[in-house]
Protein backbone atom coordinates (compact mmCIF):
# COMPACT_ATOMS: atom_id res chain seq x y z
CA UNK A 1 0.00 0.00 0.00
CA UNK A 2 2.84 2.41 0.88
CA UNK A 3 4.48 1.74 -2.48
CA UNK A 4 1.18 2.41 -4.28
CA UNK A 5 0.66 5.67 -2.39
CA UNK A 6 4.22 6.69 -3.21
CA UNK A 7 3.60 6.09 -6.93
CA UNK A 8 0.35 8.07 -6.79
CA UNK A 9 2.17 10.94 -5.05
CA UNK A 10 4.85 10.86 -7.73
CA UNK A 11 2.19 11.02 -10.46
CA UNK A 12 0.56 14.04 -8.80
CA UNK A 13 3.96 15.76 -8.65
CA UNK A 14 4.32 15.16 -12.40
CA UNK A 15 0.92 16.83 -12.97
CA UNK A 16 1.95 19.89 -10.95
CA UNK A 17 5.25 20.00 -12.87
CA UNK A 18 3.26 20.01 -16.13
CA UNK A 19 1.12 22.91 -14.91
CA UNK A 20 4.25 24.81 -13.83
CA UNK A 21 5.82 24.20 -17.26
CA UNK A 22 2.67 25.39 -19.05
CA UNK A 23 2.47 28.46 -16.83
CA UNK A 24 0.50 28.56 -13.58
CA UNK A 25 -0.96 32.00 -14.28
CA UNK A 26 -2.02 31.06 -17.80
CA UNK A 27 -3.57 27.81 -16.59
CA UNK A 28 -5.56 29.60 -13.87
CA UNK A 29 -6.66 32.24 -16.40
CA UNK A 30 -7.94 29.57 -18.81
CA UNK A 31 -9.79 27.75 -16.02
CA UNK A 32 -11.41 30.98 -14.81
CA UNK A 33 -12.75 31.67 -18.31
CA UNK A 34 -14.38 28.23 -18.49
CA UNK A 35 -17.81 28.03 -20.12
CA UNK A 36 -19.79 26.10 -17.51
CA UNK A 37 -22.44 24.99 -19.99
CA UNK A 38 -19.90 23.01 -22.02
CA UNK A 39 -18.11 21.80 -18.89
CA UNK A 40 -21.43 20.47 -17.56
CA UNK A 41 -21.94 18.66 -20.86
CA UNK A 42 -18.48 17.09 -20.48
CA UNK A 43 -19.41 15.84 -16.99
CA UNK A 44 -22.72 14.54 -18.36
CA UNK A 45 -20.84 12.60 -21.06
CA UNK A 46 -18.68 10.95 -18.39
CA UNK A 47 -21.78 10.00 -16.39
CA UNK A 48 -23.34 8.55 -19.55
CA UNK A 49 -20.15 6.57 -20.20
CA UNK A 50 -20.28 4.93 -16.76
CA UNK A 51 -24.01 4.16 -17.07
CA UNK A 52 -23.48 2.72 -20.56
CA UNK A 53 -20.71 0.49 -19.24
CA UNK A 54 -23.09 -0.80 -16.55
CA UNK A 55 -25.84 -1.41 -19.14
CA UNK A 56 -23.41 -3.32 -21.38
CA UNK A 57 -22.18 -5.55 -18.58
CA UNK A 58 -25.76 -6.16 -17.41
CA UNK A 59 -26.58 -7.64 -20.84
CA UNK A 60 -23.83 -10.23 -20.27
CA UNK A 61 -24.98 -10.83 -16.69
CA UNK A 62 -28.60 -11.40 -17.74
CA UNK A 63 -27.52 -13.85 -20.46
CA UNK A 64 -25.51 -15.75 -17.85
CA UNK A 65 -28.59 -15.87 -15.56
CA UNK A 66 -27.01 -13.53 -13.05
CA UNK A 67 -29.94 -11.23 -12.33
CA UNK A 68 -28.95 -7.92 -10.76
CA UNK A 69 -30.53 -4.48 -10.62
CA UNK A 70 -28.93 -1.73 -12.68
CA UNK A 71 -28.11 0.18 -9.48
CA UNK A 72 -26.08 -2.75 -8.08
CA UNK A 73 -24.29 -3.25 -11.39
CA UNK A 74 -23.53 0.48 -11.47
CA UNK A 75 -22.05 0.28 -7.96
CA UNK A 76 -19.90 -2.67 -9.06
CA UNK A 77 -18.65 -0.72 -12.10
CA UNK A 78 -17.73 2.30 -9.95
CA UNK A 79 -15.90 0.10 -7.43
CA UNK A 80 -14.09 -1.52 -10.37
CA UNK A 81 -13.09 1.89 -11.72
CA UNK A 82 -11.72 2.83 -8.29
CA UNK A 83 -9.60 -0.34 -8.06
CA UNK A 84 -8.46 0.00 -11.70
CA UNK A 85 -7.33 3.55 -11.06
CA UNK A 86 -5.16 2.62 -8.10
CA UNK A 87 -3.65 -0.40 -9.90
CA UNK A 88 -0.50 -0.03 -12.04
CA UNK A 89 -0.09 -1.69 -15.42
CA UNK A 90 -3.01 -3.03 -17.44
CA UNK A 91 -5.46 -2.05 -14.69
CA UNK A 92 -6.84 -5.56 -14.25
CA UNK A 93 -7.66 -5.06 -10.58
CA UNK A 94 -11.12 -3.69 -11.29
CA UNK A 95 -12.32 -6.95 -12.84
CA UNK A 96 -12.19 -9.08 -9.65
CA UNK A 97 -13.59 -6.13 -7.69
CA UNK A 98 -16.63 -5.96 -9.99
CA UNK A 99 -17.05 -9.72 -9.74
CA UNK A 100 -16.83 -9.62 -5.94
CA UNK A 101 -19.50 -6.91 -5.59
CA UNK A 102 -22.00 -8.75 -7.80
CA UNK A 103 -21.25 -12.27 -6.49
CA UNK A 104 -21.09 -11.40 -2.79
CA UNK A 105 -23.37 -13.75 -0.84
CA UNK A 106 -24.16 -15.91 -3.91
CA UNK A 107 -21.70 -18.81 -3.92
CA UNK A 108 -23.02 -20.46 -7.08
CA UNK A 109 -22.46 -17.56 -9.50
CA UNK A 110 -18.73 -16.80 -9.12
CA UNK A 111 -17.74 -18.65 -12.30
CA UNK A 112 -20.55 -17.18 -14.40
CA UNK A 113 -19.89 -13.66 -13.14
CA UNK A 114 -16.18 -13.96 -13.90
CA UNK A 115 -17.07 -15.10 -17.43
CA UNK A 116 -19.21 -11.99 -17.98
CA UNK A 117 -16.37 -9.77 -16.74
CA UNK A 118 -13.91 -11.35 -19.18
CA UNK A 119 -16.43 -11.18 -22.05
CA UNK A 120 -17.00 -7.50 -21.24
CA UNK A 121 -13.26 -6.80 -21.33
CA UNK A 122 -12.65 -8.77 -24.54
CA UNK A 123 -15.57 -7.18 -26.41
CA UNK A 124 -14.28 -3.69 -25.58
CA UNK A 125 -11.29 -4.39 -27.81
CA UNK A 126 -13.50 -4.28 -30.95
CA UNK A 127 -14.48 -0.57 -30.83
CA UNK A 128 -11.01 0.35 -29.54
CA UNK A 129 -9.35 -1.30 -32.54
CA UNK A 130 -11.96 0.17 -34.91
CA UNK A 131 -11.46 3.73 -33.66
CA UNK A 132 -7.68 3.22 -33.56
CA UNK A 133 -7.65 2.35 -37.27
CA UNK A 134 -9.80 5.43 -38.04
CA UNK A 135 -7.41 7.57 -36.00
CA UNK A 136 -4.46 6.00 -37.83
CA UNK A 137 -5.98 6.99 -41.17
CA UNK A 138 -6.40 10.63 -40.09
CA UNK A 139 -2.88 10.77 -38.65
CA UNK A 140 -1.54 9.31 -41.90
CA UNK A 141 -3.45 11.82 -44.03
CA UNK A 142 -2.24 14.71 -41.86
CA UNK A 143 1.31 13.29 -41.64
CA UNK A 144 1.51 13.66 -37.85
CA UNK A 145 4.46 11.34 -37.27
CA UNK A 146 4.42 11.38 -33.45
CA UNK A 147 0.79 10.27 -33.31
CA UNK A 148 1.41 7.66 -36.03
CA UNK A 149 4.25 6.17 -33.98
CA UNK A 150 2.26 6.04 -30.74
CA UNK A 151 -0.84 4.67 -32.51
CA UNK A 152 1.34 1.87 -33.89
CA UNK A 153 2.65 1.08 -30.40
CA UNK A 154 -0.90 1.26 -28.99
CA UNK A 155 -2.18 -1.17 -31.62
CA UNK A 156 0.54 -3.71 -30.82
CA UNK A 157 -0.06 -3.39 -27.07
CA UNK A 158 -3.83 -3.76 -27.45
CA UNK A 159 -3.45 -6.84 -29.68
CA UNK A 160 -1.08 -8.35 -27.12
CA UNK A 161 -3.50 -7.68 -24.25
CA UNK A 162 -6.42 -9.11 -26.28
CA UNK A 163 -4.41 -12.23 -27.13
CA UNK A 164 -3.45 -12.79 -23.50
CA UNK A 165 -7.07 -12.26 -22.39
CA UNK A 166 -8.32 -14.86 -24.88
CA UNK A 167 -5.57 -17.30 -23.89
CA UNK A 168 -6.40 -17.03 -20.19
CA UNK A 169 -10.14 -17.23 -20.88
CA UNK A 170 -10.09 -20.57 -22.71
CA UNK A 171 -7.22 -22.34 -20.91
CA UNK A 172 -8.35 -23.89 -17.61
CA UNK A 173 -4.89 -24.05 -16.01
CA UNK A 174 -4.12 -20.44 -16.89
CA UNK A 175 -7.60 -19.35 -15.77
CA UNK A 176 -7.00 -20.90 -12.33
CA UNK A 177 -3.67 -19.11 -12.07
CA UNK A 178 -5.28 -15.84 -13.11
CA UNK A 179 -8.04 -16.22 -10.53
CA UNK A 180 -5.46 -16.88 -7.82
CA UNK A 181 -3.50 -13.74 -8.74
CA UNK A 182 -6.64 -11.63 -8.93
CA UNK A 183 -7.73 -12.89 -5.53
CA UNK A 184 -4.34 -11.93 -4.08
CA UNK A 185 -4.78 -8.46 -5.56
CA UNK A 186 -8.25 -8.14 -4.03
CA UNK A 187 -6.90 -9.12 -0.62
CA UNK A 188 -4.29 -6.36 -0.86
CA UNK A 189 -6.83 -3.73 -1.93
CA UNK A 190 -9.55 -4.75 0.57
CA UNK A 191 -7.63 -6.44 3.44
CA UNK A 192 -10.35 -5.96 6.06
CA UNK A 193 -13.15 -7.40 3.93
CA UNK A 194 -11.09 -10.52 3.12
CA UNK A 195 -9.67 -11.12 6.60
CA UNK A 196 -10.31 -14.74 7.64
CA UNK A 197 -12.29 -15.71 4.52
CA UNK A 198 -9.48 -16.00 1.96
CA UNK A 199 -9.52 -19.81 1.79
CA UNK A 200 -13.31 -19.99 1.55
CA UNK A 201 -13.43 -17.50 -1.33
CA UNK A 202 -10.54 -19.21 -3.13
CA UNK A 203 -12.44 -22.54 -3.05
CA UNK A 204 -15.52 -20.82 -4.47
CA UNK A 205 -13.44 -19.42 -7.32
CA UNK A 206 -11.92 -22.84 -8.06
CA UNK A 207 -15.35 -24.50 -8.11
CA UNK A 208 -16.52 -21.85 -10.55
CA UNK A 209 -13.85 -22.52 -13.19
CA UNK A 210 -15.91 -25.02 -15.21
CA UNK A 211 -18.97 -22.79 -14.94
CA UNK A 212 -16.76 -19.93 -16.10
CA UNK A 213 -15.64 -21.68 -19.29
CA UNK A 214 -19.14 -22.91 -20.20
CA UNK A 215 -20.65 -19.45 -19.67
CA UNK A 216 -17.93 -17.72 -21.67
CA UNK A 217 -18.44 -20.09 -24.61
CA UNK A 218 -22.23 -19.56 -24.45
CA UNK A 219 -21.77 -15.78 -24.43
CA UNK A 220 -19.44 -15.91 -27.43
CA UNK A 221 -22.06 -17.81 -29.47
CA UNK A 222 -25.04 -15.54 -28.74
CA UNK A 223 -25.37 -13.09 -31.66
CA UNK A 224 -28.11 -11.01 -30.00
CA UNK A 225 -25.90 -10.43 -26.96
CA UNK A 226 -22.93 -9.67 -29.21
CA UNK A 227 -24.66 -6.97 -31.26
CA UNK A 228 -26.42 -5.44 -28.26
CA UNK A 229 -23.19 -5.16 -26.26
CA UNK A 230 -21.29 -3.97 -29.33
CA UNK A 231 -23.78 -1.12 -29.71
CA UNK A 232 -23.23 -0.13 -26.07
CA UNK A 233 -19.46 -0.31 -26.59
CA UNK A 234 -19.53 1.96 -29.63
CA UNK A 235 -21.82 4.42 -27.83
CA UNK A 236 -19.52 4.34 -24.79
CA UNK A 237 -16.49 5.39 -26.83
CA UNK A 238 -18.45 8.05 -28.71
CA UNK A 239 -19.57 9.74 -25.47
CA UNK A 240 -16.02 9.58 -24.09
CA UNK A 241 -14.76 11.39 -27.18
CA UNK A 242 -17.57 13.92 -26.83
CA UNK A 243 -16.52 14.48 -23.21
CA UNK A 244 -13.06 15.62 -24.32
CA UNK A 245 -14.58 17.57 -27.20
CA UNK A 246 -16.77 19.52 -24.75
CA UNK A 247 -13.80 20.11 -22.42
CA UNK A 248 -12.01 21.94 -25.23
CA UNK A 249 -15.20 23.81 -26.07
CA UNK A 250 -15.47 24.88 -22.42
CA UNK A 251 -12.06 26.57 -22.44
CA UNK A 252 -12.72 28.33 -25.73
CA UNK A 253 -10.39 26.25 -27.93
CA UNK A 254 -12.58 23.80 -29.87
CA UNK A 255 -10.95 20.84 -31.58
CA UNK A 256 -12.26 18.79 -34.46
CA UNK A 257 -13.67 15.47 -33.31
CA UNK A 258 -11.09 13.50 -35.33
CA UNK A 259 -8.30 15.35 -33.50
CA UNK A 260 -9.78 14.24 -30.19
CA UNK A 261 -10.06 10.70 -31.58
CA UNK A 262 -6.38 10.59 -32.60
CA UNK A 263 -5.14 11.67 -29.17
CA UNK A 264 -7.50 9.42 -27.20
CA UNK A 265 -6.63 6.32 -29.19
CA UNK A 266 -2.90 7.08 -29.10
CA UNK A 267 -2.88 7.60 -25.35
CA UNK A 268 -5.02 4.66 -24.24
CA UNK A 269 -2.48 1.83 -24.45
CA UNK A 270 0.35 3.91 -23.01
CA UNK A 271 -1.82 4.52 -19.94
CA UNK A 272 -2.44 0.77 -19.64
CA UNK A 273 1.27 -0.13 -19.56
CA UNK A 274 2.20 2.68 -17.17
CA UNK A 275 3.88 1.62 -13.93
CA UNK A 276 1.97 4.39 -12.14
CA UNK A 277 -1.53 3.60 -10.80
CA UNK A 278 -4.15 4.77 -13.29
CA UNK A 279 -1.38 6.24 -15.43
CA UNK A 280 -1.36 9.29 -13.11
CA UNK A 281 1.02 11.89 -14.47
CA UNK A 282 2.05 9.74 -17.44
CA UNK A 283 -1.32 10.03 -19.19
CA UNK A 284 -1.41 13.79 -18.57
CA UNK A 285 2.11 14.19 -19.94
CA UNK A 286 1.56 12.01 -23.01
CA UNK A 287 -1.81 13.55 -23.92
CA UNK A 288 -0.45 17.09 -23.47
CA UNK A 289 2.45 16.25 -25.79
CA UNK A 290 0.05 14.77 -28.36
CA UNK A 291 -2.12 17.89 -28.29
CA UNK A 292 1.03 19.97 -28.80
CA UNK A 293 1.66 17.96 -31.98
CA UNK A 294 -1.66 19.41 -33.22
CA UNK A 295 -0.10 22.91 -32.89
CA UNK A 296 -1.98 23.83 -29.71
CA UNK A 297 -0.52 26.28 -27.21
CA UNK A 298 1.07 24.45 -24.27
CA UNK A 299 -1.18 26.24 -21.76
CA UNK A 300 -4.29 25.10 -23.63
CA UNK A 301 -2.98 21.54 -24.10
CA UNK A 302 -2.08 21.04 -20.44
CA UNK A 303 -5.17 22.77 -19.02
CA UNK A 304 -7.56 20.79 -21.23
CA UNK A 305 -5.79 17.53 -20.39
CA UNK A 306 -5.85 18.18 -16.63
CA UNK A 307 -9.55 19.19 -16.70
CA UNK A 308 -10.45 16.17 -18.85
CA UNK A 309 -8.58 13.83 -16.51
CA UNK A 310 -10.28 15.36 -13.48
CA UNK A 311 -13.66 14.51 -15.02
CA UNK A 312 -12.73 11.09 -16.41
CA UNK A 313 -10.29 9.86 -13.74
CA UNK A 314 -10.54 11.69 -10.44
CA UNK A 315 -14.34 12.10 -10.18
CA UNK A 316 -15.17 8.40 -10.84
CA UNK A 317 -12.26 7.34 -8.60
CA UNK A 318 -13.54 9.48 -5.72
CA UNK A 319 -17.11 8.20 -6.13
CA UNK A 320 -15.94 4.58 -6.48
CA UNK A 321 -13.67 4.89 -3.45
CA UNK A 322 -16.46 6.40 -1.36
CA UNK A 323 -18.79 3.45 -1.98
CA UNK A 324 -16.14 0.70 -1.79
Structural topology:
Layout: H1 2-22, H2 24-32, H3 36-63, H4 70-85, H5 94-103, H6 110-123, H7 125-142, H8 145-170, H9 172-189, H10 191-194, H11 198-207, H12 209-221, H13 223-250, H14 257-272, H15 282-292, H16 298-323
Structural summary, described in words:
- With 324 residues, the chain is mostly helical.
- The chain has one domain (2-13, 33-323).
- 83% of the residues lie in helices and 0% in strands.
- It contains 16 helices and no strands.
- α2 (24-32) packs across α16 (298-323), α4 crosses α16 (298-323) and α9 packs antiparallel against α11 (198-207).
- The longest helix is centred in the N-terminal third of the chain and has 28 residues, at 36-63.
- The radius of gyration is 20 Å and the shape is globular.
- The protein starts with a helix and ends with a helix.
The first-to-last residue Cα distance is 16 Å
Shape: globular
Question: Which runs of at least 5 residues are low in confidence (pLDDT < 50)?
Answer: none
Order of helix and strand elements from N to C terminus: HHHHHHHHHHHHHHHH
Quickly give the structural class: mainly alpha
Mean pLDDT across all residues, rounded?
83
Helix content: over 70%
Strand element count: 0
Rg from Cα: 20 Å
Amino acid sequence: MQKRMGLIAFGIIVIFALIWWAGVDETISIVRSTNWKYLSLAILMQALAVITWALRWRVFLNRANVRESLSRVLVAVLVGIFVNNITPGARAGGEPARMYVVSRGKDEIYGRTFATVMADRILDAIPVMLFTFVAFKYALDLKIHVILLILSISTLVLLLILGISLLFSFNERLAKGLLSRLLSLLKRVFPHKFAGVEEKIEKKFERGIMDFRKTLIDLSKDKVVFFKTLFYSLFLWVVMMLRTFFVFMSIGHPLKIYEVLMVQMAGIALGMISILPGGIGITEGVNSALYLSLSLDKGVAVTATVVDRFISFWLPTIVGGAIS
